[in-house]
């Protein structure tokens, strides 16, 4: 990345201008398909044309694009062959037609380089990636993967080149499954095809190979896949994996290997500390790897010049200062502070107190705490004393009203314990759980202790704080625990010192989806809006409880989430967790017009953005607020750098809907990262959509407040 030539104090990004000479003349074809599955058929058709015809072929909805157009007879010959080999997939494909007037967009050109021409140099890159891999233990290794993606920067096609790390289990899925009492325990694990780049989540154990071998051989695209199917014994398993919405594939289990995520460490007996050390790449290490890969791409004339940097392209880079972001907060007595980290914020809270106390807890009125202990062999007295000391330091009195030990935390036992604690007129339940029960179970059909406790407390409107065994011994966690408890009781620790000047209200919206069991598509179970004042003070949440069909939030549901009593005549910034789907943006604008409001829509995309770096004599972690601006309405943002200086932060991709400028969209995200009352450390996401994943898992299980509108942030 030419890091040694960068100037002091500059920023750079993992994005390179595409060499104009690398861009070939492209031709497009449109499939004539009598089905709604055009995208699925188009992608598979591109694969077979690439395999059987000259040149490069790729699918960019709704076009099949190539740099080597072929005679109609050659194309029809491949189609007829596919009719014979895979009638179920291609029987709805009638023909494909060349479009003589089509012109590629800058995004199409970038995608063609990333998805087609880059494959020509992959064999030169693979040895480098292999040299950067590590053997962690006997059956576990850490692999480096090169991820390439096309972008448009200031109207020109560009290419991002990134290094990702993944942990791979040496044991394949079939071998692992032989030691399981129930093969369905595989569901939810992340896997990768041994012979390709495909990866996905196991969603189903389909059956035995003997029942599916013939079908799998018919649909297998590659000789390596066919060989795996032929080698598999009759009794071996066929596994279904999901690679995205409405995309699933069946594989023989022996062809799949596990990608191990942090939640899988105990299952595969992985040393978390050693793993984290090897997975983490410093900015200097990461940029050094990219320099070597970029050199190959430049030698092949795919990219030109240096990676985009602030020295050569200053208008494309933003800072916290250039978007007018200030970390200033108001604490007790409206005392203005600019905390320099979580420790400093903790000291200021102890000195000045909370911005606003709940009327339920004036000075000296103790918080009645009920303790539900599922760790009966661990006496909690010392922990509880430290917790009360922490609450006192924040100017809140407390009392341990009752402790209930639950030896076997079944649903019935937990319910009885909660009822007993309620009888003592407690304000909040502190539940002590084993480390293995620290979060919601992502399998919607399986419930753990965490799920049952959340169901019993959230559903009954009882504030609760779940604490695991290891957290009880972590002295640094007490500030976060106390802050979360007090906030769940309606106290407000702090707000923004400077209200957002372009908005009256900020809203985060998300929708929790679950797959249908038999029909195609998905069922969206719950939509939720979290509503904040422009100071960041929480106003209320609104939940739409009825199941929603399809991939978008319908207009009538959006009206429910944005009641006119609150939003009429207001300027509103809307943070969407992910992308707006279908006609959501138009439906919001139509509703805004009806209630004479102004809605500014902002997409906050958590994955896929290339990294941004700072250079000050060496490549470093960039400061909060650093951003790379692709155009007036899209940027990559460093919202909250990780606490480890030797880590390289993953940016958020922020997209605003015109005319709302990207600078104000960035400012709104940065401001709301300051206000997470469950932690003194700023989260990566703004509080408007922070915790969306956990809220979604709970909502899909029916775990939500009895009141579908409320002003207490139950998710903290």
Considering DSSP H and I runs of 4 or more, what fraction of the residues is helical? 25-40%
Q: Using the 3D structure, state the CATH architecture of the largest domain.
A: 2-Layer Sandwich
| Mean pLDDT across residues | 89
- Report the end-to-end length measured between terminal Cα atoms: 41 Å
**CATH T-level fold name of the largest domain:** Nucleotidyltransferase, domain 5
Q: Specify the biggest β-sheet.
A: 11 strands, mixed
Beta-strand percentage range: 25-35%
Q: Low-confidence spans: pLDDT under 50, at least 5 residues?
A: 1-8, 517-521
CATH class term of the largest domain? Alpha Beta
Give the CATH H-level superfamily of the largest domain: Ribonuclease H-like superfamily/Ribonuclease H
Rg, alpha carbons = 27 Å
Count of helix runs: 21
Task: Tell me the number of structural domains.
Answer: 4
Apparent shape? globular
Structural class of the secondary elements? Answer: alpha+beta
Number of strands: 34
What do these coordinates show?
With 716 residues, this protein is of the alpha+beta class. The chain folds into 4 domains: 27-103; 123-286, no CATH class; 357-488, Rossmann fold; 498-710, 2-Layer Sandwich (Nucleotidyltransferase, domain 5). Helices cover 29% and strands 28% of the residues. It contains 21 helices and 34 strands. The strands form 6 sheets. Strands 15, 23, 24, 25, 26, 27, 28, 31, 32, 33 and 34 form an 11-stranded mixed β-sheet that branches. Strands 2, 7, 8, 9, 10, 11, 12, 13 and 14 form a 9-stranded antiparallel β-sheet that branches. Strands 4-5-3-6 form a 4-stranded antiparallel β-sheet, sandwiched between helices.
């Amino acid at each position: 990345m030419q890091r040694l030539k960068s100037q002091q104090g500059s920023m750079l990004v993992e994005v390179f201008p595409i060499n104009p000479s690398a861009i070939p003349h492209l031709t497009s074809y449109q499939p004539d398909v009598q089905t709604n599955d055009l995208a699925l058929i188009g992608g598979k058709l591109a694969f077979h044309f690439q395999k059987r015809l000259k040149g490069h072929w790729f699918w960019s909805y709704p076009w099949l694009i190539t740099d080597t157009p072929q005679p109609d007879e050659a194309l029809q010959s491949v189609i007829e062959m596919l009719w014979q080999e895979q009638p179920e997939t291609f029987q709805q494909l009638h023909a494909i037609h060349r479009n003589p007037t089509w012109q590629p967009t800058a995004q199409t050109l970038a995608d063609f380089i990333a998805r087609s021409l880059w494959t020509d140099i992959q064999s030169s890159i693979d040895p480098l990636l292999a040299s950067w891999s590590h053997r962690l233990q006997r059956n576990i290794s850490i692999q480096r993967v090169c991820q390439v993606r096309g972008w448009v920067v200031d109207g020109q096609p560009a290419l991002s080149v990134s290094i990702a790390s993944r942990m791979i289990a040496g044991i394949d899925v079939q071998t692992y499954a032989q030691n399981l009492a129930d093969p369905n325990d595989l569901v939810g694990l992340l896997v990768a095809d041994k012979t390709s780049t495909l990866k996905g989540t196991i969603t189903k154990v389909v059956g035995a190979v003997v029942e599916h071998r013939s079908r799998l051989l018919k649909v297998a695209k590659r000789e390596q896949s066919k060989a795996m199917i032929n080698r598999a014994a009759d009794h071996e398993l066929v596994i279904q994996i999901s690679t995205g919405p409405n995309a699933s594939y069946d594989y023989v289990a022996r062809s799949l290997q596990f990608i191990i995520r942090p939640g899988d460490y105990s299952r595969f007996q992985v040393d978390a500390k050693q793993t984290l050390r090897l997975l983490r790449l410093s900015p200097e290490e990461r940029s050094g790897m990219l320099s070597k890969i970029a050199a190959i791409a430049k030698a092949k004339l795919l990219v030109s010049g240096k990676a985009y940097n602030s020295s050569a392209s200053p208008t494309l880079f933003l800072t916290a200062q250039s978007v007018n972001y200030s970390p200033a907060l108001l604490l007790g007595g409206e005392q203005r502070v600019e905390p320099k980290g979580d420790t400093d914020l903790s000291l200021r809270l102890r000195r000045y107190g909370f911005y606003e106390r709940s009327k339920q807890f004036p000075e000296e009125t103790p918080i009645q705490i009920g303790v539900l202990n599922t760790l009966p062999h661990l006496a909690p007295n010392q922990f509880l004393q430290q917790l009360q000391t922490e609450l006192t330091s924040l100017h809140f009195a407390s009392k341990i009203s009752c402790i209930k030990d639950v030896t076997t935390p079944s649903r019935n036992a937990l319910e009885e314990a909660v009822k007993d604690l309620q009888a003592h007129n407690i304000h909040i339940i502190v539940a002590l759980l084993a480390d293995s029960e620290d979060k919601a179970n992502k399998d919607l059909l399986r419930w753990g202790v965490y799920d049952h406790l959340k169901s019993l407390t959230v559903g009954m409107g009882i504030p609760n704080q779940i604490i695991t065994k290891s957290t009880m011994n972590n002295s640094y966690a007490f500030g976060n625990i106390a802050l979360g408890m007090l906030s769940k009781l309606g106290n407000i620790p702090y707000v923004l010192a400077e209200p957002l000047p372009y908005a009256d209200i900020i809203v985060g919206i998300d929708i929790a989806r679950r797959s249908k069991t038999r029909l195609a598509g998905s069922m969206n179970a719950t939509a939720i809006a979290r509503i904040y004042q422009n100071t960041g003070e929480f106003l209320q949440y609104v939940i739409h409880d009825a199941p929603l069909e399809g991939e978008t939030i319908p207009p009538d549901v959006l009206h429910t989430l944005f009641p006119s009593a609150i939003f009429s005549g207001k300027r509103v910034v809307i943070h969407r967790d992910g992308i707006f789907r279908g006609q959501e943006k138009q439906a919001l604008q139509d509703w805004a017009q009806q209630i004479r409001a102004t809605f500014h829509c902002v997409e906050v995309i958590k994955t896929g953005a290339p990294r941004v770096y700072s250079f000050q004599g060496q490549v470093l972690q960039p400061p909060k607020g650093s951003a790379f601006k692709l155009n007036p309405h899209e940027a990559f943002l460093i919202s909250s750098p990780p606490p480890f200086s030797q880590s390289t932060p993953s940016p958020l991709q922020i997209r605003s809907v015109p005319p709302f400028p990207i600078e104000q969209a960035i400012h709104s995200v940065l401001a709301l990262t300051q206000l997470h009352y469950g932690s003194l450390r700023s989260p990566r996401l703004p509080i408007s959509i922070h915790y969306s994943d956990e809220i979604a898992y709970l909502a899909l299980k029916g775990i939500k407040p009895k009141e579908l509108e409320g002003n207490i942030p139950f998710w903290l």
